[in-house]
Amino acid sequence: MNLDLDTLCVTTLRMLAVDMVEQAQSGHPGLPLGAAPMAHVLWSRFLRHDPSDPRWPDRDRFILSAGHGSALLYALLHLSGYDLPLDELKRFRQLGSRTPGHPEHGLTPGVECSTGPLGQGLAMGVGMAMAERLLADRFARPGERPLVDHHVYVLASDGDLMEGVASEAASLAGHQRLGKLIVLYDDNRISIEGSTDLAFTEEVEARFRAYGWHTLAVEDGEDLEAIAGAIELGRAESGRPTLIRVRTQIGHGSPVAGTAGAHGAPLGPERLATTRAFYQWPAESFHVPREAQAFRQAVIERGREWSQAWAARIATAETEDPQRVALFREALAGVLPEGWDNGLNTLDFGGKPIATRVASGMVINALAPGLPSLIGGSADLAPSNNTMIKNGGARNIHFGVREHAMGAVVNGMALHGGWIPYCATFLVFSDYMRGAMRLSALMETRVIYVLTHDSIAVGEDGPTHQPIEQLAGLRALPGLTVFRPAEANETAAAWRLAVTARGPSALILSRQNLPLLPAAPEGVARGGYVVSPCVGAPELVLLASGSEVALALGVKARLAAAGHLRIRVVSMPSWELFAAQSREYRQEVLSDGLRLALEAGSSLGWHRWVGERGEVIAVDRFGLSAPGGQVMEAVGLTEEAVTGRALELLGRQ
Fold first, then answer.
1. What stretch of H or E contains 452?
2. What's the CA gap between 551 and 555, in Å, rounded?
3. Residues with Cβ < 8 Å from 599, sequence gap 6 or more?
4. Angle at CA 564, nearest 5°, toward 560 and 568?
5. Is 597 within 8 Å of 606 (Cβ atoms)?
6. How far apart are CA 320 and CA 338, in angstroms?
7. Residues with Cβ within 8 Å of residue 467, at least 6 apart in sequence
8. Is residue 385 within 8 Å of residue 432, measured between CB atoms?
9. How far is the CA of 137 from the CAs of 141, 165, 323, 547, 581, in angstroms?
10. In angstroms, what is the C-alpha Rg of the chain?
11. Among 503, 591, 599, which residue's Cα sits nearest to residue 546?
């Protein structure tokens, strides 16, 4: 071989990727073959990162939004000196490897976020760029370079740009004027079904210009200098995010180049041999030339110089203003400041019935002074969701009516570090951001979802706005802790737990006022607890969450008047936390008596808690357009109706 170093490295990336796919007999060789030149230029000339310290706070972020091209990312990481040995590349897509089919955050060093669902990576990149700017501003001193000062780069495909979540995020990024966000668009014009002309013929650059982006084009994806020049121009544009359209050929150099056949299947032995011949590459699988290995060492040394220079800059700032830098380090580490929850300890809800959405707003504002990392907003529903931080300035994020993007953006903010983000909408619209919520649970990001208007008691807005299946769907999501507090004090306890959680939490909150409970809600941390006991073993246990706890208490009073005195009421604000308790504790709370569960949503899942002898009064149909009280009456969730069902159940034992 007689190749210059750039060409050698590009070809190494390409062939490592196709060898991974071939060895696994699964994967996507087309994108790596086409996009390797732009990836190499970015990683070798512009990306500021330290392979020996993948979590260096001021590193540039790189997101492969087109996660199906993961073999390219793993080749980049290996060739750049990350702790991803060649043996891991050989185990691509295999059980227990660090080279899964789509990139997974927390598994592979250098992978900034889990991508695969198209559009999510680009949207998380928007969140990272927002987090970088807000963090720089938060710790800024006049005339001094910010403590964080880096770019976010995204490699996106046609498929990413077709997805609505990317459109929402791009619109928000343009509005926010995120000048440190640069998206490299791999314009290969091929999707799984064939040419993108089948479904995607828009003027992408014109669309992004309309969003407020700076757009550039490179018509030859093999032209390394043209790609470098475009990235330089993108970096020079500080007032707008940049989209660089790079015209590539999917599967470049292979017999299926430029066709859908290059997208999602191994090349096969004959095509692979032809591809090796095209690139004048040895027949040896996973071949890494000595020159590329030397390049690897150079990248490591350069990265270490960058991170050490930043550390020295932070040390200098620390001598001048130790308190500021201490707070900065604390924020990056996700450490909660001492006394962060003091505001909760003195919070007074006034002793009167109050909607849990209103109580949540009071909690946010009680937390905000002692928890400066708390930041967030709503999908244009802040007055209804009660999510505004009073005098919060930039800590209040106006997401606009963009639920899809909002969930992904807060994921990006959480992954960037320095912030504890929350976002809000009506519970019924959580469906719009389920993809992002799922990734949040998968990545264990500390994100707090505030989801209000939690049941058919929403009333007049009708069945389109009355959630039925959403609560059950969220409870089914592994890794998401769902809280449906019964009143204000449970709401405060849920917020405290959400802030200290390792992963994401969802707070499901009422529109209507709810009375305060007669007992303090220490049991919220255990997910379920006895809110109203009885003398002796209970003959009936009423189980409920949210607003139906107050209903259960009213039913208990009616049953007492009818002579049934051994009635226990259990509040179950978090099934996940309750399920994590010991069998003995759960049995102590639920007892051996008959059980009747109440919920103004789907019954799905409640049978686990009521057992074979118990019953569930829930809503397994869509709601009605009427005042909330009338809707609840129509579905049998009133004290009179539930008492009647309870008496029937007691009469059958």
1. strand 448-452
2. 6
3. 471, 544, 545, 546, 548, 606, 616, 617, 618, 619
4. 80
5. yes
6. 23
7. 426, 427, 428, 430, 453, 454, 455, 456, 458, 601
8. no
9. 8, 27, 16, 41, 43
10. 28
11. 599
Q: How is residue 441 written in tokens?
A: 């649970």
CB distance 176 to 123 below 8 Å? no
Q: Cβ–Cβ contacts within 10 Å for residue 548, how many?
A: 29
Q: Report residue 361 as tokens.
A: 């707003």
Q: How far is 357 from 275, CA to CA, in rounded Å?
A: 60
User: Who contacts 214 (Cβ-Cβ below 8 Å, separation ≥6)?
Assistant: 234, 237, 240, 241, 242, 243
CA distance 271 to 22: 11
Q: Identify the residue whose tokens are 């001021």.
A: 58
Nearest CA-CA partner of 509 in 596, 352, 617, 386: 386
Bridge-partner residues for 351, per DSSP?
none
Give the pairing type, strands 194-195 and 61-64.
Answer: unpaired
Question: Residue 146: which residues within 8 A CB-CB, separation 6 or more?
Answer: 136, 137, 139, 140
Determine the Cα–Cα distance for residues 523 and 538; give it in Å rounded to an integer: 19
Antiparallel, parallel or unpaired: β 190-191 and 194-195: antiparallel
Q: Which of 429, 481, 427 is nearest to 457 (CA)?
A: 427
Residue 63 near residue 122 (C-beta atoms within 8 A): yes
* pLDDT band at 518; cut points 50, 70, 90: confident
- Joined together, the tokens standing for residue 170 give 């791009």
Output DSSP code: residue 119: T
Check: CB of residue 22 under 8 Å from CB of residue 272.
Answer: yes
Q: Tell me how far apart the alpha carbons of residues 434 and 446 are, in angstroms, rounded to a whole number.
A: 16
pLDDT in tens, 553-598: 999 999 999 999 999 999 999 999 999 999 999 999 999 989 999 9
Q: Residue 1 pLDDT > 70, yes or no?
A: no
Q: Which amino acid is at 125?
A: G
Q: For residue 576, with 0-12 CB atoms within 10 Å meaning exposed, 13-18 middle and 19 or more buried, which class applies?
A: middle
| Contact by Cβ (8 Å): 6, 75 | no
Q: What are the angstrom distances between the C-alpha of 487 and each of 458, 511, 513?
A: 16, 11, 8
The predicted structure's pLDDT at residue 623: 95
The amino acid occupying position 426 is F
**Element housing 392 (H / E):** none
Which tens digit of pLDDT belongs to each residue from 309-367?
999 999 999 999 999 999 999 999 999 999 999 999 999 999 999 999 999 999 999 99
Q: How far apart are CA 105 and CA 443, in angstroms?
A: 6
**Residue 450: both structure tokens together:** 């505030």
Complete domains list, the chain, with CATH: 5-302 (3.40.50.970), 342-514 (3.40.50.970), 524-652 (3.40.50.920)
Secondary structure class of 482 (helix, strand, coil): strand
Q: What is the pLDDT of residues 124-136, one digit of tens each?
A: 999 999 999 999 9
Q: Nearest to residue 578, comparing CAs of 552, 609, 553? A: 609
CA 78, 79, 85 angle in degrees (round to 5)? 30
Write out the catalytic residue numbers: 403
